[in-house]
Amino acid sequence: MKKPAALYYTGCEEHHYQPHFLDVCSLCQRPLAHNHDIFMYRGDTPFCSHECRQEQIEMDEANERKWKIAASNISSRTKTETPTKETDVNKAVRNGTVAVA
Questions:
Q1: Are the beta carbons of 31 and 24 closer than 8 angstroms?
Q2: pTM over 0.85, yes/no
Q3: What is the DSSP letter of 47?
Q4: Which residues form the FLZ-type zinc fingers (predicted)?
């Protein structure tokens, strides 16, 4: 007699524990106490203390400033550089014979 088809191999021999996102501090990886305050940032990022949260905020702001500076440098560099083909289009050219005296 055949066994029911509902039993399938799922490859679950290696049970890897996936910690819940509120188990550890996102910065220092310390375990978060479930009976203490958890400091959240950007909706779903937990921190063990105000200090860890503030350090992450400052790192994010520094990265954002670097990105904005890099973007403005690229933008200003492309505005000041003019391709040679574009300047050649603006030159007046006459066809014909030139006589030099």
A1: yes
A2: no
A3: E
A4: 20-64
Q: Return all residues near 53 (Cβ < 8 A) that are at least 6 apart.
A: 27, 39, 40, 41, 47
DSSP category for residue 99: -
Buried b / exposed e across 25-64, counting CB within 10 Å, b at 16+?
A: bbbeeeebeeeeeebebeeeebbbbeebbeebeeeeeeee
pLDDT of residue 81: 58
CA 16 centroid distance within chain: 27
- Judge residue 24's burial from the number of C-beta atoms within 10 Å of its C-beta, 0-12 exposed, 13-18 middle, 19 or more buried: middle
Place of tokens 């203390």: 49
